[in-house]
Design a protein that fits this description.
mainly alpha; two-stranded antiparallel sheet; 5 helices
Length: 138
């Protein structure tokens, strides 16, 4: 995969660069990497029989990435929502984070239910999302 750099100059002397990967490549792996990094910052469950938010989000992320019925765009959108849930889980009692989690939960439900062949993923989400949102009291 060949990376291309695009330089962007903004008025006032501020500059930056954007690195774009191969157009035909999978961008969900990049989004998935960001999600994994945020999930890994969360504490692991200390109770073997009861998974906590880190384990639940890891399962959800893996299911989204593995589902062959989701388009790359749908996977990226769904993974962004998992990322929002993971960020919110860092401070689940904060009102703003609860709102962020609530929005991510709704968006995930919409993304997954819009893919008629993703029945296995839909069933998994129906089981995991209530456990995840319980952390936020929503």
């Amino acid at each position: 995969m060949e990376d291309k750099q695009i330089k962007i100059q903004v008025g006032g002397g501020v500059g930056g660069s954007v690195t774009a990967g191969d157009i035909g490549g999978s961008s969900s792996s990049h989004v998935g990497g960001d999600v994994s990094a945020i999930i890994n910052e969360l504490p692991s469950s200390s109770e073997a029989d009861r998974p906590r938010i880190k384990e639940l989000l890891t399962q959800l992320q893996a299911a989204i990435k593995a589902d062959p019925n989701l388009s790359e765009d749908d996977k990226n959108d769904a993974l962004e929502q998992v990322k929002d849930l993971a960020e919110a889980a860092k401070n689940p009692n904060d009102a703003e984070m609860k709102n962020k989690a609530k929005k991510a939960d709704r968006m995930l439900g919409r993304i997954i239910s819009a893919v008629p062949k993703a029945t296995e993923l839909l069933q998994l989400c129906n089981n995991l999302l209530p456990l995840i949102t319980k952390v936020f009291g929503i």
